[in-house]
Amino acid sequence: MGLFLCVLFFLVFSATACDRCVHQTKVAYFSSASALSAGACGYSSLAIDFNGGQLAAAVPSLYKDGAGCGACFQIRCKNTTLCTEEGTRVIVTDLNRNNRTDFVLSSRAFMAMAHKGMGQNVLKLGIADVEYKRVPCDYKNKNLAVRVEESSQKPNYLAIKFLYQGGQTEIVAVDVAQVGSSNWNFMSRNHGAVWDTSRVPTGPLQFRFVVTSGYDGKWIWAQKVLPADWKNGLIYDSGVQITDIAQEGCSSCDDGSWK
């Protein structure tokens, strides 16, 4: 397991160490937030309540095969006549397959970049030139939550998704075991934020997962998360909070223009 983690950390950290750099791109928007809530991350209707509906679909390099689901970004448009200096914060809930822009935003997020009363003017742009950088997610003291997916079939199949993943982090590996046992079974990323396994332990369940941030990473244990009689569709409190902030690892990180 130690060698596996070393290789895993190297692969992930080399790609994420520059997350706090400022990038230049264009963004478009969806006219309906439902297009994002039904997105590749698998949050479904829960996404509508994330961040006041300020959601985004991100290109593959930011979506990261689902590891980027739930990541937060600060985005501001460069039209200073229409837009504020601080811009707005979005949460990634979908994969953007349009290579013309790094993000496609919900219309609410697109308008939130604007000065007060100028949201409709910004919408008329259709596509806006922007700057963006990754920022920590703050769920106001909410613990990481585990939702049991409706596709789960006790006792042979368990599918879960993680909600309220704080900090500037990614979950890159998940194990599950019966509470009190050291016999861990790995889970696989099914899609987006959804992980599953066909090797489901009996009894109450605990989880451990590898969380990365920048070029740093660690194991986190969440004990007594699912009761023995866990039920599909319910959300369970993990009892842990993730607040790690990505470390700087860029030799040329242009963030001086963002105050």
UniProtKB/TrEMBL annotation:
SUPFAM superfamilies: Barwin-like endoglucanases, PHL pollen allergen. Residues 38-142 form the Expansin-like EG45 domain. GO terms for biological process: anatomical structure morphogenesis. It is found in: Secreted. Keywords: Secreted, Signal. Residues 1-17 form the signal peptide. GO terms for cellular component: extracellular region. Residues 156-238 form the Expansin-like CBD domain. The keyword Secreted applies. It comes from the Eukaryota. Pfam families: DPBB_1, Expansin_C. Belongs to the expansin family. This is Expansin-like A2. It comes from Ilex paraguariensis (yerba mate). The lineage of its organism: Eukaryota, Viridiplantae, Streptophyta, Embryophyta, Tracheophyta.
